[in-house]
């Protein structure tokens, strides 16, 4: 994973690199580092933890200048998250930052040790610095080219040398973009991080090398032949990156959901006529000839995808397989199918690999993402955007509910074309969906009640989230949120399955969160838990009288259609997890061991 950054130009490189790294932290925040060349020497600063920790160190030693430099923010794969393993790695006059994995690093390391190189870290990337040094013969681009010729694995690397006034970059299976600005040239893992300096962006493609100088950037292939890549003008909204009045991004983003849901919906329907404007890049005949759909995603996006298991057969009139992206490689999809990648970041490696596989097999591909210009948008036949603005907290919230909004409208569109629903039905469904932001707002007003319940959850050793049908993915999402930010072992289960095993874990130190806003069958499952001593927190529909009698704590949710109820329950469990983590005094926006975007397989 990790984020890499580089700058060469007339300005001091250190502060620019720090600013870029701050926007790359979603790729990892186990350690960070920068290296700049000043007066013919490499100056490097590294720190454990976030870029803010690095910045503190940098400010104490700001006496060094240097207008060329590289930076890195790390998510640990090889070697613990220590300063020793932080990038940049230095070998004599060479410094390197790397995103990716050097799979044959042990073989390369042994050879380099035989040749007298001394290793300081346990990190696979260190071999790249020594390898480039080993091959260096007065030409940095040549040395990088020879080095990557020996590497098995993936890389987005940036190298600098005290002897060369340039950065040399190389990529394979990891993203790297070059920005051409008025005040120099930039390189980084994504567009967003350098858009604060320039909107003139070039994406590197696999197996190319870039030579980035003060005035220009040149792209070559590993044999030194020129490669023509064009700059594009990107237009990103960078305004919205403050906490405003919220203590954490996560809480701010939870509260943004009425707007993000509304904005997403408005981008795929016409609010006046209640018609669907969503374009999926397929003609009606092509839609009708589809045999099935594959919805592929990871983590929270997978939970949004799971909603289609109930939604598509009923509404879209199409069979659907919902798969976690890391498992899709073992699945043989049916040929005449639509592949739908759901990914907030558009960069999740497993999702991208699945999409490439689907494309290679000739499936039509559709991406649902929140990030303009992300890699998934380059790979998919067609992209639909969720309109959430940037999501900074590692725990996804507003993008999850917006993904459900897109999937709902997509199902209605497919259902209309397939003749499963009438246009009158479709208009009614669209109108119901349009009520959701208002309901979310209403639910957010119950925040204080949820906070009170969370105080009890903070004592919990184990939380079970249960639900049926659409409430099952919502239950899984609640469990994921509770685990990732409140560090409480949590399971999201279909309510009817508890008795087939997990019930054995229920004790008086566990909490069961029952999503019971519709359907009566869950009542008996709640009773099974109660009989074993578990505390029950139930989210019920307004006016419920049955579950109320058996649950320990009850929170009412507006009474709505099932899928909308699942959206509301999801917002409720987001708040529950948030306040549980807050009660435990945890760091919330950047939970331990995680990263916002998972760019390794
Ligand atoms: C959890 C979370 C992760 C992501 C997962 C997929 O809150 O955010 O589970 O959902 O890493 O990321 P995207 O959606 O960017 O593909």
Biggest pleated sheet? 8 strands, antiparallel
Approximately how much beta-strand content do the residues carry? Answer: 15-25%
The poorly predicted ranges are none
Q: Biggest sheet: strands side by side, in what order?
A: 3-2-4-1-10-9-11-14
Shape: globular
The CATH topology of the largest domain is given as Glutamine Phosphoribosylpyrophosphate, subunit 1, domain 1
Query: Can you identify the CATH superfamily of the largest domain?
Result: Aminohydrolase, N-terminal nucleophile (Ntn) domain
- How many domain modules? 3
Number of strands: 26
Number of contiguous helices: 21
User: Given this structure, which CATH class of the largest domain is correct?
Assistant: Alpha Beta
Percent helix? 25-40%
Structural category: alpha/beta
- The appropriate CATH architecture of the largest domain is 4-Layer Sandwich
**Terminal CA distance:** 9 Å
Rg computed from alpha carbons, rounded to a whole number of angstroms: 25 Å
Estimate the mean pLDDT confidence.
Answer: 93
Small molecules bound in the structure, each named once: fructose -6-phosphate
């Amino acid at each position: 994973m990790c984020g890499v950054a580089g700058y060469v130009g007339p300005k001091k490189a250190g502060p620019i690199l720090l600013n870029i790294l701050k926007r790359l932290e979603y790729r990892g925040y186990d350690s960070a580092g920068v290296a700049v060349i000043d007066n013919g020497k490499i100056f490097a600063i590294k720190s454990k933890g976030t870029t803010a920790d690095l910045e503190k160190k940098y400010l104490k030693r700001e006496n060094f200048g240097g207008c060329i430099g590289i930076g890195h923010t790390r998510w640990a794969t090889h070697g613990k998250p220590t300063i020793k393993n932080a990038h940049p790695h230095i070998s004599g006059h060479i410094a390197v930052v790397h995103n990716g994995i050097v799979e044959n690093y042990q073989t390369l390391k042994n050879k380099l040790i035989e040749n007298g190189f001394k290793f300081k870290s346990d990190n696979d990337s260190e071999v790249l610095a020594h390898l480039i040094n080993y091959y260096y013969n007065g030409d940095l681009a040549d040395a990088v080219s020879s080095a990557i010729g020996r590497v098995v694995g993936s890389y987005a690397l940036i190298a600098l040398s005290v002897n060369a006034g340039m950065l040399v970059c190389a990529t394979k299976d990891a993203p790297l973009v070059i920005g051409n600005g008025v005040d120099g040239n930039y390189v980084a893992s994504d567009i967003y991080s350098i858009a604060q300096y320039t909107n003139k962006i070039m994406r590197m493609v696999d197996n190319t090398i870039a030579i980035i100088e003060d005035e220009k950037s040149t792209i070559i292939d590993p044999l030194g032949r020129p490669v023509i890549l064009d700059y594009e003008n990107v237009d990103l909204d960078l305004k919205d990156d403050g906490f405003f009045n919220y203590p954490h991004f996560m809480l701010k983003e939870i509260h943004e959901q009425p707007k993000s849901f509304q904005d997403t919906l408005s981008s795929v329907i016409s609010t006046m006529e209640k018609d669907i404007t969503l374009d999926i890049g397929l003609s009606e005949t092509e839609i009708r000839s589809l045999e099935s759909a594959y919805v592929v995603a990871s983590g929270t996006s997978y939970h949004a995808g799971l909603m289609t298991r109930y939604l598509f057969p009923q509404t879209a009139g199409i069979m659907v397989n919902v798969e976690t992206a890391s498992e899709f490689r073992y699945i043989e999809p049916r040929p005449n199918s639509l592949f739908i990648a759901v990914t907030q970041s558009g960069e999740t490696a497993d999702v991208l690999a699945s999409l490439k596989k689907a494309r290679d097999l000739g499936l039509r591909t559709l991406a649902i993402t929140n990030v303009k210009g992300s890699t998934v948008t380059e790979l998919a036949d067609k992209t639909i955007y969720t309109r959430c603005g940037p999501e900074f907290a590692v725990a996804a919230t507003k993008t999850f509910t917006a993904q459900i909004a897109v999937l709902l409208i997509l199902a209605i569109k497919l259902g209309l074309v397939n003749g499963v629903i009438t246009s009158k039905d479709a208009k009614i469904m669209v109108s119901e969906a349009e009520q959701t932001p208002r309901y979310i707002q209403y639910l957010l007003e119950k925040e204080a009640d949820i906070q009170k319940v969370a105080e009890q959850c903070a004592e919990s050793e184990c939380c079970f989230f249960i639900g049926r049908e659409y409430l099952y993915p919502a239950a899984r999402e609640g469990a994921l949120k509770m685990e990732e930010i409140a560090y409480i072992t949590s399971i999201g289960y279909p309510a009817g399955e508890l008795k087939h095993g997990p019930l054995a874990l229920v004790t008086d130190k566990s909490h069961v969160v029952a999503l019971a806003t519709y359907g009566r069958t869950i009542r008996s499952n709640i009773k099974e838990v109660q009989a074993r001593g578990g505390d029950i927190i139930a989210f019920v529909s307004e006016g419920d009288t049955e579950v109320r009698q058996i649950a320990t704590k009850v929170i009412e949710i507006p009474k709505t259609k099932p899928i909308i109820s699942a959206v509301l329950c999801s917002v409720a469990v987001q708040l529950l997890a948030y306040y549980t983590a807050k009660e435990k005094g945890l760091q919330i926006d950047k939970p331990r061991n995680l990263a916002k975007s998972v760019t390794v397989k």
